[in-house]
Every structure is written in structure tokens, then in C-alpha cells.
Amino acid sequence: MEPPETGKTLVQAVQDYLQTVQSARSEHTARAYANALAAFLRVLKEHWIEADAPVAQLKEDGLAWMLAYLKVFSAATERLYTQAVKGFYTYLAAERLADVNLPRLEQLIRQRARRTGPRLPQFPRREIETVLEFVNNFTNNLSDNPTERLRALRDRAFLLTLADTGLRVHEACALRRGDLDWNEGRAVILGKGDKQAVVRFSGRSLRALQEYLAARAALDGASGRPLASLPLFARHDKGAGKKVKPMTTTTGRNIVSERVRQALGEEAEGRITPHSFRHYFVTTVLRASGNLKLAQALARHANIQVTQRYAHLSDDELDRGYHEIFE
User: Fold this and answer.
1) What is the CA radius of gyration of the chain?
2) CB of 65 closer than 8 Å to CB of 43
3) Measuring CA to CA, how many Å separate 272 from each of 46, 91, 162, 266?
4) Cα–Cα–Cα angle for 285, 181, 218, nearest 5°?
């Protein structure tokens, strides 16, 4: 085996690795990997390895330290960050930047990473329905302020879209007007893993979108851009001004937080996230159809075992069944 190249620092190697991730993976994944590698550099610093140290000196112990650090995080974060750091080591080996023992990496992950069983998705279905009813009633009390009116119509359309399509928050924020086929009631998107997929829209989500876009017509028309290229969900804040800028995922999360707080009170904030609406969507399909394959296809789950986690009775049904048996 040829000796590793010398001269490159840890932080330089991390930056180069993240560039390869950005060119090959989605923006969402690239951002998560950047967070993982930033945490990895902090862990290395705690073990007296600075970011400007030669990357050729990095050993597999770094992964062991990272795995120990990740024990306080959720299992999902542990898996994601472990994959990112393992990918970094693999990159170092491929580019001959460090002498990496890849079999030892695999052994460390097998020995030290958590083994978790399937977890049932937890989300407050009734509270989500209360939030949806709350935003559905926006038209009864819309503000005279044009910006506030636009935000209310956008937020209603956004939440109904999340609930009735199963879109992930970054997928919804990335939609353009031209992506939506209004006649067919569906859109072709680039989903998880940059896979093309068809997403179907309900009648109520389409009506909410039409009302929102009608209120936005003057703003869109003044943009000087083709309508099809404009974002489906736009920012309506001081930073956007009169420009039609796409919503960020942060804005999407803030919409959920704000409307949950308004509909359910301060104590409910944090219990419902954008992903809760995806859980709601999958469970709604299963409750209505009982068809696991249909739910898998509509949710775009690559593995049916993910969908099976939703195939359980609601708490209300369990309570009813229990009390029918026991006094």
C-alpha cells in the first residue's frame, strides 16, 4: 500500500470531504453531515487533537470517541452522525490522506453503536386535527393587512399540504409553482436520496393553495420571472420585501410552532413538529384503507418495515377494547 499523502490538515480534509457530499447528496443531507463533522472536530479537540493537526495522524480511535460522545443523543442522530464520520474515514482512505483500517471501523460500530428495536411513531393525532381545523377557519377572520393576510393563507396551505401529502418539510419548501399539475392534483418531486417521486394533493390542500396564490398574484406578477419558476410557498417578511423568495425549512418549522401555539396554547409548543404531520398522513391512510402497501407507496417508504410501525391501533381503540374486556 502506498503511504498516505502529507501536508493536509484535519479541517482542510473535512472541508474537502463535505464538498464531495454536497455534490453527491441532497442539501438536507449535506447540512446534516456538516453538523456531524463539526461535532467530530470538537470531540477530537477534547482528546487533544486540534483541527489544524495533520490529517495523516488520525486513527480509528477518533470514531470510538465519537460513538461514546453520541450516547447522549437520540438513536437516529447517532446513526446519522456515525454514518457521516465513517464516510469521512472512507474518504481519507480512498484519497490516501490517512492510513485507515476500515475493518476496524466496522468492528467499532458493531461493538459500540446502540442496537435499537423499532419505535412506534408518537404524535398527538387529535391535537393535529385541532390545528388543521384552526387554520382552516382563517378565512373567517383574515387581517386587512396584506402581508398578514398572505401569511395566514400561506400557513393554512402549508399545513394542509403537509398533512394531506406526507411531504417532508424540506420537500414542501423546495416546491415550485410549475411542479404542481393542477389538473391531475399531483406534483413530481425529488425526494429522499434524490429519488424522483409523485406526490398527490387533496382537494382541500389544492383549494387552499389556489386561494393563497390568488392573493399573491400581484407580487408574483411584479417579479418579472416565469410563474412556473417561482416557489410554491414564499417568504412574507421584511427580509423578503417585494421579492418572491422560497421559504426555508426554518420558516416551515416556525410556521408549525406559531400555529400550534395559537391553536393549542403555549404548553403544546414542541409536541407537534413538521414531521408530526407526516406521521399523521401515514396513519390516516392506514386507518382509512387498512392497506399497508398503499400506505408504503404514498409515504414513499423504501422499506415496508418503516410503514409497519404505523400499523397499530390508536390509544382510543386500545382503551375501548381493554374496557370491553375488563370492568
Assistant:
1) 24
2) yes
3) 35, 38, 12, 12
4) 115
Task: Read off the pLDDT of residues 295-315 as tens digits, 9 standing for 90 and up.
Answer: 888 878 877 777 777 766 445
- Domain segments of the chain as ranges: 10-112, 125-318
Right CATH for 125-318 from 3.40.50.2300, 1.10.443.10, 2.60.40.1120, 3.40.50.2000? 1.10.443.10
Amino acid at 107: Q
Tell me whether the CATH fold assigned to 10-112 matches the one assigned to 125-318: no
- Name residue, grid cell 399531483: 186
Q: Decide: pTM greater than 0.85.
A: no
Alpha-carbon torsion (298, 304, 308, 309), positive or negative = negative
Q: For residues 7 and 29, what is the distance between their CA atoms, to the nearest angstrom?
A: 29
Yes or no: say if 295 and 289 are a contact pair by the CB < 8 Å rule. yes
Q: Which of 35, 28, 26 lies closest to 88 in space, CA to CA?
A: 35
DSSP conformational letter for 187: E
Length of the chain, in residues: 327
User: 3-class SS at 159?
Assistant: helix
254/151 Cα distance (integer angstroms)? 12
- In the block, cell 387581517 appears at 143
CA separation for the pair 199, 184 (Å, rounded): 11
Q: Is residue 231 predicted with pLDDT exceeding 90?
A: yes
Quote the pLDDT of residue 112.
74
Question: What's the burial of 192, exposed, middle or buried (CB within 10 Å: 0-12/13-18/19+)?
Answer: middle
Q: What is the topology classification, in CATH, of domain 10-112? A: DNA polymerase; domain 1 (1.10.150)
d(C-alpha 192, C-alpha 170), whole Å: 10
Q: pLDDT tens across 66-111, in order?
A: 888 888 777 778 888 999 999 999 999 999 999 988 898 888 888 8
Q: Are 299 and 281 in contact (CB under 8 A)?
A: yes
Q: Give per-residue pLDDT as tens, 35-72.
A: 999 999 999 999 999 989 999 989 989 889 988 888 87
